[in-house]
Amino acid sequence: MTCDAFPALFARYCETVTRSLRGLVVVCSMNEMNVPLIIHDVARDLLSGPEGEARRAAAERALGAPISSNFLFTPPDALVRNGLGAHATGRDAIKAVRPDVQVGVTLSLQDEQAEPGAEAVRDARRTPVLVTENGFSGDDDERRCAFVGESLDHLQRAIADGVDMRGYFDWSLLDNYEWMSGYGPKFGIVGVDRSTQRRMIKPSALTYGAIARAGAIGAVEARSAMTSPSPLRAATPLGIG
Questions:
Q1: Other beta carbons within 10 Å of 110
Q2: Residue 107 pairs with which residues in a beta bridge?
Q3: How many CB atoms lie within 10 A of CB 217?
Q4: What do you get for the CA distance between the two ends of the chain, in Å?
């Protein structure tokens, strides 16, 4: 992102992806673009002083590139100039192929709530909500099953209260690579064996699927998925290694 050619290159990438995918309704050009700004002070402290310089040198030797080539360490000026520029060029490229698709950029928001006394403004705005990441990190999938059911129950209550809820995505489909923690956290409703790349369905995937198929929370659907005698409960290969 520090390269000034990035916006043009990103636009080309967006055009290629948009032509390749089907069924697009909403597109996020970049996910959590503001993360480097959030951790800027932490990164500065880590890289300051003699120890910080040693860390930087070791990281750059391992990378074979400047540390600023890592998204998390993008300088703020480059993030604003090339990051926002790339979103604009990418949006235009997507719209040129699919003018009907909504395009936006997501920001890292941990917990936004109205200040006391501002609830009326929040309610009057009726800002549409699309939940893009909501998940449980851990090896205890029974807790993840409960988390899925409880999260969707609260989502249903929010809709009943009048919230303009546009969609919900569990985080995540697969055990993934987390920016700050590597492969340690296990968010997936489908596990991944990193030594073989074999995928394993977890019981939480069945819980989520049962609720989605029923179109309602329903304790029966969630409970039946969690207590099913199927070998899937023990995590079964999907066969897409």
A1: 5
A2: none
A3: 19
A4: 32
At 70, give phi and psi (nearest 5°): -85, 130
- Rounded Cα–Cα distance for residues 134 and 42 (Å): 25
| CA distance readout (Å), 28 to 13, 14, 37 | 13, 10, 19
- 172 upstream amide cis, omega within 30 of 0: yes
Bridge partner residues of 103 (DSSP): 27
Q: Left (φ > 0), alpha (ψ -120 to 50) or beta: where does 134 sit?
A: beta
**Does pLDDT of 19 surpass 80?**
yes
* Residues 98 and 16: beta-carbon distance below 8 Å: no
82 closest CA partner among 161, 183, 11: 11
The predicted model scores a pTM of 0.74
> Considering Cα of 20, then 25, then 29, then 33, what sign does the dihedral take?
negative
pLDDT tens digits, residue range 103-161?
Answer: 999 988 777 888 999 999 988 988 899 898 999 999 999 999 999 999 999 999 999 99
Give the SS3 label for residue 192: strand
Rounded distance, CA 86 to CA 89, Å?
A: 5
Please give the full DSSP string across 48-95, using - where no structure is assigned: SHHHHHHHHHHHHHHHTS-GGGSGGG--HHHIIIIIHHHHHHHHHHHH
Strand (E) or helix (H) holding 10 = helix 6-20
